[in-house]
């Protein structure tokens, strides 16, 4: 029977919170913090409370006065009734890893300050890894939400965990628009003369003003190859050789801003997903879509209190990284030193009614 005992790092583990607080700049900087802040923590968290009960209840069909109400199937609605699952990762320092660590610490000719630095680096490496991992999962959910109006928790994005498939955040159908001509057709696509102004005008009639257009870097490269873009941007730059001009983001945004349109912000976030020890890269932002977003925050990260905050396990050392709970302990059988991060969270996309998605690659 395994038992949790005090971390092998002893008194240094007891100072884990101080270590994290002093090293926040060493954690990877997530994308979601630009547009989503954390909501106050709550005791429980369901998909209904994160997405909003009124939005889910408002999703019924519009029917004529003498028609029968459509019968809803349960599976789709059940996605909104369950508790939000934990986001968690745990790493292990094995017995052989520990022996290697002890060897480093016992080397002669190495001063105590160097040994202490080695110890702290060894310890912080695992803390950073698990802390970054929960941020990456929140990034994945937010990037999916902003570019598709949905969050995917499927076998591709979550191979070793629960599978929910799509969790629809209920973006209005009218907010999803197809390009007049696919942007993959560089000779005839009309992003500047038709696609962008059409969406800006449609939103304007609803009192919506956009600040930015978010697009993946791969879509940007297609955009700047479009003949219309080359021609209009080169004219704005005072260059008539549209075929030879180098289209820069600054030049495009200058033209967009001059027309009172939202400027482009590039998204280049790839996230590693591990399955059976192998890591593959996924792109959570839809590479075929331009997301038109208003100014300011797009939503907030709803989060719940981890049970171990309420009822700590004896001998386990705890610390906070943002809203994630970091824990550290040693196990006797099989031997191992464990570091874990846990976060119960889900994005509330509160501005979803004011966000438009342009399907640029058809």
From TrEMBL:
Cross-referenced Pfam families: Phage_cap_E
Top-level taxon in the UniProt lineage: Bacteria
Protein name: Phage major capsid protein E
Annotated source species: Cnuella takakiae
